[in-house]
Amino acid sequence: MLLIRLITNTVPTGAFRGFGGPQSEFAIETHMSHLAKLAGKESLTFKKEHFVKQGEETPTGGKFYEPVKLEEMVAKADSLSDYTRKREEYSWQKGRLRKGIGMSIFLHGCGFTGSAERDHIKAKVKLEKKEDDTIEILVSNTDMGQGLKTTLSKIVAKVLELPLEKIKMINPDTDRVPDSGPTVASRSVMTVGKLLERAAIRLKKEWKTGEYQAFEENYVHPELIPWDINTFTGDAYPTYSWGVNVVEVEMDTLTATTEITGTWGIFDLGTAIDDTIIRGQMEGGMLQGLGYGSMENMIQVNGLIRQNSITDYIIPTAMDAPKIVTALIENPYSGGPFGAKGAGELTLIGTAPAYVAAVEHAAQINANKIPFLPEDLIQQIDEVNRKKEA
Amino acid sequence: MSDCIHFILNGESVDADVPGTARLLDILREYFKLTGVKCGCGEGECGACAVLINGKLRNSCMVAMGSLEGCSVMTIEGYEKTEKFAVVEKAYGKAGAVQCGFCTPGMIMATEALLSKNPHPTDSEIREGLSGNLCRCTGYNMIVEAVMTAAKEGAGLW
Questions:
Q1: Could you tell me the CATH superfamily of domain B5-78?
Q2: Which is deepest, A21, A116, A349, B44, by most CB within 10 Å?
Q3: Please, are residues A327 and A266 in contact by the beta-carbon 8 Å criterion?
Q4: Residue B93's closest chain A neighbor by CA?
Q5: CA of A148, closest CA in chain B: separation in Å?
Q6: CB distance B47 to B41 below 8 Å
Q7: Per-residue confidence in pLDDT tens, chain B, 158 aa
Q8: Does the beta-carbon distance from A317 to B131 stay under 8 Å?
Q9: For residues B145 and A61, what is the distance between their CA atoms, to the nearest angstrom?
Q10: Residue A69: DSSP 8-state
């Protein structure tokens, strides 16, 4: 046997509102727009020709079981942002000051990949009814600001037709709560919330006023085409959430400064359990994605990150945040509580490619990296100018 | 005269037997146990440690104790007891302006600093007033809405 040991000094990477989602989605969307240009087609027309439909196969040989509402979502995005008209109008600009508009169309898997829920997580939840008829939710998932306590409590309250104040969920203590798995992978509401919905339905049926009652629910895998970990085939996810984002920019091609003048986000995340919380996820995720696509630079040199601190790693401030318009397209999923799917990661991944598409549109260039900084823009504009002169 | 630094903390006269070179942030958290003041970056970028010093918004990680002799310091723990806070709190809740909450104490002190100077700010004045306070969760617009609501609901208080 030959053993080769390699040593690397690259900095380990980690999740950024998902493992690999933001990076892949930027690459896929940008690649599709570049292919459209090569085919002599408008980006949206080209993408529409390749929309997946319900019942069709996924890249891993799984299936899109649920309705795919991309056409409806694009139509909504178009009517809110006036994308098609602006896209045409901004296409032939020649002056120093220009506008651009770009669209991204994307999906995100909901919950753990493949069979992880079945084989490793084996989630369990518990619902306790106290003698005073108040309810306690016992799960290991944490509220880190994404609004999980409110969302899970609302699910249980809605099933039991009780006011929200009757439901309690305290920060998990592993001495008391069953292992319902980690708070990751856009799974908490869809997967853990579904188990709580089932427990609440049982409690409602067997409700005994003034008595202590407890119900546990175990995860049941909704597997249709089994996931094969060796060949990476089968259903990678039980279902998908979808998004259409539009970003509009104004650009000064002399100074290479780009201002984001409008941002729209249309999402299909099944059903929103709480509208304010979901708006917070959408707006927060979209601005995070805009920072990621336009300014958040992280360079490694000889195993060190050059941005030593938050002084060098610039994230958007309130002054950088554009107006964000959001809308939901209802598409309830039977595997989630009241139809809810994953919402955490999805909201980040669309704005970086939409921003880059808008920049490409205004400057009439192809961009192949993010963050796409003023330095990158001026370099490309110079190249275009040099080619024109030559 | 004692070796202590005398200042007003949340309306009360205090003596702090601490080095003049210590950071106000550390003294607030460790000595006075006022942990509503957060340490985000420790270098004056993020505003999580913002407090009011003589009514002005300051990042407490950038303030040496020695500069505080005779000053008045207000943290979120002191502000919490005011009528204005009740209005701000309600507005933040209504707008969904809080997610993880780490930036919130500083954000609220920035809100007070802004409204005390400008009781009817425009959208862009609010953004400027909050621009020294970083938030990674909300995307800011819901916080801007909260400040707008507080200004409206608290008419007369500022």
A1: Beta-grasp domain (3.10.20.30)
A2: A349
A3: yes
A4: A276
A5: 10
A6: no
A7: 578 999 999 999 999 999 999 999 999 999 999 999 999 999 999 999 999 999 999 999 999 999 999 999 999 999 999 999 999 999 999 999 999 999 999 999 999 999 999 999 999 999 999 999 999 999 999 999 999 999 999 989 99
A8: yes
A9: 46
A10: -
Tell me the residue range of the domain where A307 lies: 22-51+62-110+239-389
Which of A261, A287, A290, A320 to substitute to test the interface with B, most B CBs within 10 Å?
A287
Count of CB atoms situated within 10 Å of the CB of A217:
22
Structure token pair of residue A26: 């930027």
Best residue of A143, A273, A310, A313 to probe chain B, by most B CBs closer than 10 Å: A310
Got the DSSP string for A213-245?
EEEEEE-----SS--BTTTTBS-SSS-EEEEEE
Which of B43, B99, B136 is nearest residue A315 as measured by Cβ atoms? Answer: B136
Measure the CA–CA gap between A325 and A316, rounded to whole angstroms.
18
Smallest CA–CA distance, residue A285 to chain B, in Å, is: 7
Architecture of domain B82-153: Orthogonal Bundle (1.10)
DSSP string computed for B104-118? HHHHHHHHHHHHHH-
| CATH for A192 | 3.30.365.10
Same domain, A102 and A130: no
* Rounded distance between C-alpha atoms, residue A189 and residue A178, angstroms: 16
Considering chain B, tell me which residue range(s) the CATH 3.10.20.30 domain(s) occupy. Answer: 5-78
Are residues A287 and B139, on separate chains, in Cβ contact within 8 Å?
yes
**Chain A contacts of B134, Cβ < 8 Å?**
310, 315, 317
Q: Which residues of A touch B111 (CB under 8 A)?
A: none
